Amino acid sequence: MSVQEYLDNHMLSRKIEEAVNAAVRAKSPDPILFISNHMRKAVPSVITKVKARQILDSRGIPTVEVDLHTNKGVFRASTPSSDLTGLYEAVELRDGDKGSYLGNSVSKAVKNVNEKISEALVGMDPTLQSQIDQAMIDLDKTEKKGELGVNAILAVSMAACKAGAAQKEVPLYKHIADLSGRNTLTLPVPAFTVISGGKRAGNSLAIQEIMILPIGASRFEEALQMGSETYHHLKAVIVDKYGAQGCNVGEDGGFAPNISSFKEGLDLVKEAISRTGYNERIKIAIDVAATDFCMGTKYDLDYKSPNKSGQNFKSADDMIKLYRELCAEYPIVSIEDPFDKEDWEHTKRFSSLAICQVVGDDLLMSNSQRMKKAIEESTCDALLLKINQIGTVTEAIEVVKLAKDAHWGVVASHRCGETEDSFIADFSVGLSTGQIKAGAPCRGERLAKYNQLLRIEEELGDDAFYAGEEWRESS
Ligand code: PGA
Ligand code: ZN
């Protein structure tokens, strides 16, 4: 092909003329840079390759990281992980070879990305998120994404979302808002884990975590400061009472002193809050994760205790009584999974008291069918959203819409096995979830999310809106 034919085929003279005119109109101080950027924009973005690798999550367990290549750059994302039961949620693909990472390696999921998924997505426009997600769903063909693995699919979906934002030259949170048809952006109220228990810590505390919510902050930046200061005051309170050993931390960064009762933990947190002087500006939430200690119809509050007395088996009605007392005595505004995941009856009964927000985590498993049932039956009034239980950005957006249409609260959530990826921070702002739960205000994989929210708030400047008092019904 001659040079002239090439120029004609690509209509280059016209495109260059347009770029020059645009530079003149913009009175650009650096016309060559302006023209080259203009030309770059004129080229549509296409996916050229999707490449995955096995990395380790914050627990030291393998997960999938993806580099999605377009003709304009490389976009990276990684999938968080936990004990996915696969009951109503998407399925992780693990190799199961006991000789490699105790069966947890993910080379099959990596291979699926590098071969099948890459082949299906090459040539696609990364701004078309729902088409990309649908292509992977079609390729997988199973209901729970077990063929390719949710660990493979989600990382690609998030990386494509980042590439789509870059093509549009907008921040990730703005692209996510666009994808969901929203035009409001809200900085969420963080729920910082300060005391860890349950399966995530080696102490005797049955419940999974105690969190603090700086609802009274005026900005996210202030909320983070309030959270951090309380965390450090708490450390001092714990050292005074239990010695330095009490400050060992659980998997999500909360302190794990050897306490065994709800009240012991709540008193420590109450004392730390009073030392900060923030008082009623900080509220408390608990994640009971009651499924983990439900034995038949009873709840064993001593399930981790080495010296079980056998006296601490509570009926569901006893638990309701206990929650009522705790909410009266402490500034508790939210309780997650107060009963076993199949105990819809008592969850509903407790919700109907309208004492605090009732969050469905194990109860719902971010599953739209279970959510619809819970909405219809008024079982709870908030969703704990774990995107790796769903598997694609498009479906996660749909699930948030479902919750919001029911006027539920929405908590964008991390997993215990996290990575440095801060995707859920942008996701929570773009969808105005109003709440985010990403662990303690310490440890890199948790702070990746909180620090990203700081950046977003800075970038939004005067347009930044912190959910604050509107944490439950952020529009
Ligand atoms: P995970 O859940 O530990 O299963 O990741 C965290 C939570 O219950 O909020
Ligand atoms: Zn939970």
UniProtKB/TrEMBL annotation:
CDD domains: DD_AtENO3-like, enolase. Mg(2+) is required for catalysis and for stabilizing the dimer. PROSITE patterns: ENOLASE. GO terms for molecular function: magnesium ion binding; phosphopyruvate hydratase activity. One of its GO terms (biological process) is glycolytic process. The active site is at D252 (proton donor), K386 (proton acceptor). Mg(2+) binds at D287, E336, D361. SMART domains: Enolase_C (SM01192), Enolase_N (SM01193). Its EC number is 4.2.1.11. The keyword Lyase applies. It comes from the Eukaryota. The keyword Magnesium applies. Keywords: Glycolysis, Lyase, Magnesium, Metal-binding. One of its GO terms (cellular component) is phosphopyruvate hydratase complex. Belongs to the enolase family. HAMAP family: Enolase. This is phosphopyruvate hydratase.
